Amino acid sequence: MNFAFTGEQLALGATVRDVLRDHCPPAALRTERRPAWEQLAALGFFGLLLPPEADGLGLGLTDVLPALEETGRACLPGPVVETAVLAPYLPAGVPKLATGSVCVAALPPGQAYAADADLADLLVVVREGGARLVPARSLRAAARPGVDPCRPLFEVGFDESEDLAGPAGPAVRAATVATAAQLVGVARELLSVTVAYARARTQFGAPIGSFQAVKHQLADVAVAVEFAAPLVHRAALSSDAASARDAGAERDAGAERDAGGERDAGAERDAGGERDAGAERDAGGERDAGAERDASAAKVAAGEAAAAAARAALQIHGAIGYTEELDLRFWLARAWSLAAAYGTTAAHRERLRTAIVDGHPSRWP
Amino acid sequence: MDLDFSPAERDFRAEVREWLGAHAPPPLPSMDTPEGFAAHRAWEAELAGARLSVVSWPEEYGGRGASLVEWLIFEEEYWAAGCPARVTQNGIFLLGPSLLRFGTPEQRARLLPAMAGGTDVWAQAWSEPEAGSDLAALTSRAEPAPGGWRLYGHKTWSSRAAYATHGFGLFRTSGARHKGLTYFMFPMTGVAVRPIAQLDGLPGFAELRFDGVYVPESMVLGREGDGWRIAMATTSSERGLTLRSPGRFLATADRLVALARDAADPALADRAARCWVAAEAYRLHTFGVARRIAAGEEIGAAASLGKLFWSELDLRMHALAMELLGDRAGTAGWLDGFLFSLAGPIYAGTNEIQRNIVAERVLGLPR
């Protein structure tokens, strides 16, 4: 039991934080579409989750969670989650994913519009029953109004598309957890800039942060963030565990196929093996359901923490916070736009209700 | 980062589950009645007989030297089995950890085993009529006497004091405000106790009057004048891990979800599911805190984050159960819990004080 990030996981987060501090300052949010993209690519960021045979590092979602949180903290524009987190689920034939030179956008299930589709070399369209891969040449993207100036929305159309083999669920689940991690980062930054403002701004001859009405709002945000984060961490762990099981099942299926000839000799052993495989499938199904539930719990908690942070941040900044001029608006917008990405808070709450009240929830571990 | 229990931790859980499965008593009468107090004490003695009353304490004092994670496992199993609330709680969870940290070897050997076995039941004596949230305004005092001290003053809202054998609290030995306070332990003999009925009509706390109660020097915890620091260490454990482990909230959440299965209104079921997730969040967060403590970190003011979270979660869960049950809440066994959950945001430092602590000492806002 060691429910804390390892030194390596934290170091990766710190590295990304340093890069974003230098290459994605608030000023860049007004002028650049994809700040820090090349620097992140040079770091290997887009290959973190890819297997070594695709020039990646083969890390799990848990390993990159602190780094993803930093992208939220910096309010980094561009389809970062789509390109870095969906990458392992794309066909092996898609070239250069690890280098970040292929930019991926997504239209997740239940959503009308695809964010950042104008930048996409590839669009992943996930609908009931599977996912399709759309190349840029056949993609039509029409801008639609959205809340986040750095995460523009597009209605998309396409003629040509390729079926994405395999179930889309795990890919969407990973992107959901990654988005939740970004929301935690957004919430932390909103809390930190608002605390700084409440210390500096004086009224009635005292910093407004010395007034209990202000203190208590910020304390409540601190509580919301503090208890959202572990749900996100757990969701990453259970998503990784479910993915590892899927990969293991695939390997076993391959091995079983290879050993097919030998097996004819021992019918008894085969029957036993089948029984074991069945039991394993059942346990696996439960684990997948658990991973889905945990992803929803993470998304709801992180979305609500970020929404609460945005609400308190705006209220405590007062009129200056309500301006286009103050950089705060980018983080407010990100809290709102990501809360609606990969399933709204309401949609995930409904999934939780189904999994927990209608199902029979088991704790993990 | 992982969430895997070791084989030893799994074995420990299995042992605890098996023992509690065989020994957990049926619901006992309230510990705030004479017969309920006796029954709860007898249960503590039975737990202690299996060395399960204070698993995280050293073996010499009746524990098993269990790790924090093992203690959390014990708590999960304890509440899942529907076991009684701990009548020894003020002693084993508040004073005990302070004795282990600040007490002399002689004090530990003399006081801890009787505390662990339920022979001595300790009441806390912090608040005074004019010193509640502003605890440093307390005026009860101790005056030197040959070989010890005499206590004078007036304490109130003293939990368990109606039936307890001993008490502990702060008394002024010099100075003003936080300085010059000393941490005393005392037997209840000689203290004038006036039980106070709570919302449920039973005397869960009491008023204490001290008119020269003599305590020997050996009942001072830590150095004279160092009481505030020691008390803060105690309240930090009260707010954090030791008083309210996740186990009890997990058990409540499970019961609540079972209750919500019959809810006609999906909005109520939705709230139950969210409570279940929140209890999980508290559990996961606690695994993280346990790891930090094991690594030698001081949790300090951050414990207030946890106190805010669990007390409001507990209230939310019980308020929802009341809504789900209507006039059946009492017969369904939720009424006592509801009343107790209402106390959560008040005791162990009100939630207003906790928010101030978070704002000032965690976030760094000005006082």
Explain what the structure shows.
- The complex is a heterodimer of chains A (365) and B (367).
- By secondary structure, chain A is α+β, with helices and mostly antiparallel strands.
- Chain A has 3 domains: 1-100, Acyl-CoA dehydrogenase/oxidase, N-terminal domain (Butyryl-Coa Dehydrogenase, subunit A, domain 1), CATH 1.10.540; 103-166, no CATH class; 170-256 and 278-358, Up-down Bundle (Butyryl-CoA Dehydrogenase, subunit A, domain 3), CATH 1.20.140.
- Chain A is built from 11 helices and 9 strands.
- The longest helix of chain A is centred in the C-terminal third of the chain and has 51 residues, at 267-317.
- In chain A, 50% of the residues are buried.
- By secondary structure, chain B is α+β, with helices and mostly antiparallel strands.
- Chain B has 3 domains: 7-87, no CATH class; 122-226, Butyryl-CoA Dehydrogenase, subunit A, domain 2 (Beta Barrel); 244-362, Butyryl-CoA Dehydrogenase, subunit A, domain 3 (Up-down Bundle).
- In chain B, 47% of the residues lie in helices and 15% in strands.
- Chain B is built from 11 helices and 8 strands.
- Chain B has helices at residues 7-23, 34-49, 68-80, 89-102, 105-116, 227-239, 246-260, 266-294, 303-325, 335-343, 351-362, and strands at residues 122-125, 141-145, 148-159, 166-172, 181-187, 192-196, 205-216, 220-221.
- In chain B, strands 1-4-5-8 form a 4-stranded mixed beta sheet. In chain B, strands 2-3-7-6 form a 4-stranded antiparallel beta sheet, with no helix packed on it.
- The chains are: A alpha+beta (365), B alpha+beta (367).
